[in-house]
Specification:
heterodimer, A: alpha/beta, Rossmann fold, 5-stranded parallel sheet, two-stranded antiparallel sheet, globular, B: alpha/beta, 4-stranded parallel sheet, 4 strands, about 35% helix, about 15% strand
Chain lengths: ~325, ~150
């Protein structure tokens, strides 16, 4: 059997997904037996021009991580889509926008002002911002355009499968790779994970009754290691998050932050969590309810931590 | 701006506000025609997602109307609504939307007058705010995943 041709790419991401790909450990040898890597900017010296020269659909699988933040990201998403038979949104950034997507609370101008002027370590008295063209002695160079709004991979090109997680756990990555190697592929659009239901199904903590009088941030209280974190008042996102990671954070006494995305069938993870969370506030008095809600300083950033670009609103309205 | 007619979506509980529309109608009460009523079995059925979706596809204001506290047909559905809407409003504000665009009110089946008055006053307050223009946010994204 001919070896699989695999391309890996990173767009707007932190690099954690690249590490996650390697985290499959010695299974990488098994992967090397059946697959050739034809493009991987972080690990191998191929140029964009090399990919552009490849025939359409000549790559079997592209593992694409990172959100779409610049024209370069978008260009490579489109090129790799054309060259690849199977396009996989690998990791939360490609899937839902993730942390880079939080800049959808702002726009390009505000992001630039923050990054290139306001930050305490920046010395930029002439207020020089990134440009799309620059003159150098050799001529004029084109640079990627920085978009106003971060988009997900699915909002940019047709995507076949999704591997969730920030970053995807080793076993989730391997579940996807095994399916590819064996040729036993799930239906198009599948979010590949060991669990389609909420994380709570995997969480070993004891659950009793969810009634909350006060919300706590992780630094405010040391959680009881046995009881459900949400029942203790921590904003544990497990109820609205797809399982499959093995409930690692709750087992380390930290609340789930929602990186595996929505459970099967849910289209807006933030609204889903908001609904679940507010329903269990233990009060029927509007003033007390308001006081309890005031314990949550940043609901939008908490509920859409990983999914603002993939949410119904996609971004904040910036005045 | 004079020609701006707000689109108002009202999620109405079957047992209270939705029934309240009948006395309002049969007594010939006048009110602003901007409200589109959607019947739900309980205000507790109104997932915050419904409100966000309404706003994201063109509603300028959303009313959620349920039974008065203590009167829920399902005993405590409206208490869940009472907890959800303030958190939703706090979140929408962070997303750049005026919190006045979403309002929760208790309207019983005998309060046709209150319903008519709300339809008019809420429409007027949204008219003053202007359109949400959330569809502008999506103009660069051709593919609308959620329709």
């Amino acid at each position: 059997m001919a070896k699989l041709k695999v391309a890996l790419y990173w767009a707007a991401s932190c690099g954690g997904c690249e590490i996650a790909t390697l985290a499959i450990g010695d299974k990488i040898l098994k992967l090397a037996e059946v697959a050739d890597i034809v493009f991987w900017p972080v690990g191998l010296d191929f140029k964009y021009a090399d990919v552009e020269k490849m025939a359409d659909k000549s790559v079997d699988v592209c593992l694409f991580n990172g959100a779409i933040r610049t024209s370069e990201n978008e260009h490579m998403a489109k090129v790799l889509r054309a060259k690849s038979k199977i396009m996989i949104a690998y990791g939360s950034c490609a899937y839902e926008g993730c942390i880079p997507g939080l800049s959808n609370f702002y726009n390009r101008q505000l992001t630039f002002e923050r990054a290139y002027v306001e930050t305490p370590t920046t010395d930029n008295p002439k207020k020089i911002f990134p440009q799309t063209k620059v003159k150098v002695p050799e001529g004029e160079l084109d640079l990627p355009e920085f978009y106003d709004t971060v988009k997900t991979l699915r909002q940019t090109v047709d995507v076949d499968y999704i591997v969730p997680g920030c970053p995807p756990e080793e076993k989730t990555t391997w579940l996807a790779l095994e399916a590819l190697i064996s040729g036993k592929l799930p239906p198009k659009g599948t979010v590949i994970s060991h669990e389609a239901r909420a994380l709570c199904y995997e969480c070993p903590r004891t659950r009793e009754e969810k009634k909350i009088k006060k919300f706590y941030r992780p630094y405010e209280k040391i959680p009881d290691p046995e009881k459900c974190l949400l029942e203790q008042g921590f904003l544990c996102y497990g109820v609205a998050t797809r399982g499959g990671c093995g409930a690692l954070c709750p087992q380390a006494n930290m609340p789930c932050t929602g990186c595996y995305g929505p459970v099967e069938g849910v289209i807006d993870q933030g609204a889903h969590f908001l609904s679940a969370l507010s329903s269990i506030i233990d009060s029927n008095d509007p003033e007390e309810i308001q006081r309890i809600i005031d314990d949550i300083p940043d609901p939008a950033g908490t509920f859409y931590r990983y999914s603002l670009p993939d949410s119904l609103l996609r971004r904040a309205k910036v005045k | 701006m004079d020609s701006f007619e707000p689109k108002i979506v009202a999620f109405c509980c079957n047992w209270s506000s939705y029934s309240g529309a009948d006395p309002a109608g049969t007594s010939g009460m006048q009110h602003a025609p901007n409200m589109r009523m959607i019947r739900v079995m309980c205000s507790g059925r109104v997932n915050p997602l419904f409100v966000i979706k309404a706003l994201s596809i063109g509603a300028d204001g959303v009313l959620v109307l349920g039974c008065h506290p203590g009167d829920c047909h399902y005993i405590e559905g409206n208490y869940k609504t009472m907890r959800r809407i303030p958190l939703l409003k706090k979140m929408l504000k962070q997303l750049g939307l005026e919190e006045e665009r979403v309002r929760l009110e208790w309207v019983s089946s005998s309060e046709g007058g209150k319903l008519a008055e709300l339809a008019t006053s809420f429409t007027q307050s949204i008219r003053n705010l202007g359109p949400t223009r959330l569809s502008d946010l999506k103009q660069n994204s051709k593919e609308a995943k959620h329709g």
